[in-house]
Design a protein that fits this description.
By secondary structure, the chain is an alpha/beta fold. Helices cover 34% and strands 27% of the residues. A hairpin with a 3-residue loop joins strand 10 and strand 11. Helix 8 (181-194) runs antiparallel to helix 9. The radius of gyration is 18 Å and the shape is globular.
């Protein structure tokens, strides 16, 4: 079913990529014959209720279900071609076989640490190394792809840095960016202490990656050493 094509990856904040800021670029990627597999990533803590809560949250008719499938419907993919998967039912081998039967696979996660643990447990990035369809990572699922990723700690009122997968090399990702002191401080520290560029995605922003190119979508931008004076100015205001 999957034709000969280069690997395509989309890093996005939310399911709003059917908006005008993204659609002008992405409309050529999607068509009505594609099959879409959506995998919400949620950590299983060992309680029997985990499975039931997860199932109820994403079952057909739920608010989350409708939100996840909406952008694909807007791009003309019929509802019968879209499946939301409960990853608790699969191991690495069975999930690998399933993913390769779909043209588009979309990983969503509200929490970056949940995304990291799920991707690690299922060895999904290794599976995707041989996948030639379109891979979409939303919010927390996108954050963990860089070498480091931030998680906000309410107790300390700051971002804590965790090791990521270094799947996207040479740049750190900041998803769901807002112009707050906490975000600005994290970006400054990333540029100064680790001497790394930061790819920053506000709400209406994302990144389209292919084997040969990187295209910023919407309000996404890259910050580096040359931008520190401006970032410090914003931080001090």
């Amino acid at each position: 079913m999957l034709g000969e094509k280069n690997m395509i990856q989309l890093l996005l904040n939310k399911t709003n990529f059917d908006g005008r800021w993204a659609a002008e670029t992405l409309f050529t990627l999607f068509h009505e014959n594609q099959k879409v597999l959506i995998i919400p990533l949620s950590q299983k803590t060992g309680w029997a209720s985990d499975y039931e809560d997860y199932t109820n949250k994403f079952e057909q008719g739920s608010e989350y279900h409708a939100d996840l499938i909406r952008p694909f419907l807007r791009y003309g993919i019929p509802k019968k071609n879209i499946r939301i998967l409960n990853h608790f039912d699969y191991d690495e081998d069975s999930l690998s076989r399933l993913i390769n039967n779909y043209d588009v696979v979309c990983f969503s996660a509200e929490e970056a640490l949940d995304a990291y643990n799920c991707l690690l447990d299922l060895n999904i990035l290794n599976v995707l190394s041989n996948y030639d369809g379109i891979s979409i990572f939303l919010s927390g699922a996108a954050s963990v792809l860089s070498e480091y990723f931030p998680v906000y700690d309410d107790a300390y009122e700051t971002f804590i840095t965790y090791d990521g997968f270094n799947y996207i090399e040479g740049v750190d990702l900041v998803m769901d960016y807002q112009e707050t002191d906490e975000y600005l401080k994290y970006i400054i520290e990333t540029i100064e202490d680790r001497n790394r560029k930061v790819l920053i995605c506000p709400k209406d922003g994302g990144v389209l990656l292919t084997d040969t190119s990187t295209e910023l979508l919407g309000s996404a931008f890259i910050a580096d050493q040359n931008d520190l004076d401006e970032i410090y100015r914003l931080y001090r205001e």
